[in-house]
Design brief:
Layout: H1 2-15, E1 21-23, H2 29-36, H3 41-54, E2 59-62, E3 74-79, E4 82-83, E5 86-89, H4 91-102, H5 114-117, H6 120-137, H7 143-151, H8 154-160, H9 165-186
Parallel strand pairs: 1-3, 2-5
Antiparallel strand pairs: 3-4, 3-5
Bound molecules: zinc ion (ZN).
Residues 20-22, 132, 136, 143, 146 line the site of zinc ion.
Length: 212
């Protein structure tokens, strides 16, 4: 039953989201206005995780991302010389991060209650957006590569937000096995056959572990 709920939610979440997107555009006036205000607690969480993932001091804001396609959940603006250590997410993504941080165990794919299970794909997607945009901050632009690297860092984002290592790895595995494969059909630009254990985009090729 729980599995059925999860599967239905997965189809919805992935079909609706070509999550995470790099934009080759300079900072806009809207960006500047967002950056001028202090980061909310949720944005600070995103900044903390992105900083630990990238080693850069990263600004994160949730608000108008300057992208009309509602399926795009995050944007990393690029300046003339590359990313500008700043990314934006849609406000709903900050909401999911906040929910997750308040009670990580609630969203464990192995133990969630039915109503919460239906939201696990959205939660996993929010974690994935933070990881994905962080790899854009590092300068990667190939979406399939960025998505694959991000997928391998979902566990890290989840763990930094308070999940146990076991749950964090379960969320990474959930995304990799239930959500990522759908991309081959829905958003093929974000999918690669090399995104697998031992594949070209495996960040830890010497380890027989995937994806965490
Ligand atoms: Zn992207």
């Amino acid at each position: 039953m729980r599995f059925g709920v999860l599967l239905a939610a997965v189809v919805l979440a992935v079909a609706a989201a070509s999550a995470a997107h790099a934009e080759a555009r300079p900072l806009t006036a809207t960006d500047r206005a967002l950056l001028a205000r202090p980061a909310t607690v949720e944005e600070q969480i995103g900044e903390l995780v992105a900083r630990r993932l990238t080693g850069h001091v990263v600004s994160v804001r949730c608000g108008a991302i300057g992208e009309s396609d509602p399926n795009v959940l995050g944007v990393t603006p690029w300046g003339p010389s590359g990313p500008v250590d700043y990314f934006l997410m849609r406000p709903t993504e900050c909401t999911y991060l906040s929910w997750f941080r308040q009670s990580p165990a609630r969203w464990d794919p192995h133990t969630c209650g039915a109503a919460d299970c239906a939201r696990v794909p959205s939660i996993a997607m929010a974690l994935a957006v933070v990881a994905h945009e962080s790899y854009h901050i590092l300068g990667y632009r190939n979406e399939a590569q960025v998505e694959c690297y991000g997928l391998q860092s979902i566990w890290f984002v989840a763990n930094k937000l308070g999940a146990s290592v076991a749950e964090a790895q379960a969320l990474g595995a959930f995304y990799a096995t239930r959500m990522y494969p759908v991309r081959q059909m829905t958003t093929p630009r974000y999918w690669s056959v090399e995104c697998r254990d031992g594949g070209r985009y495996d960040l830890r090729r010497t380890l027989a572990r995937w994806p965490s």
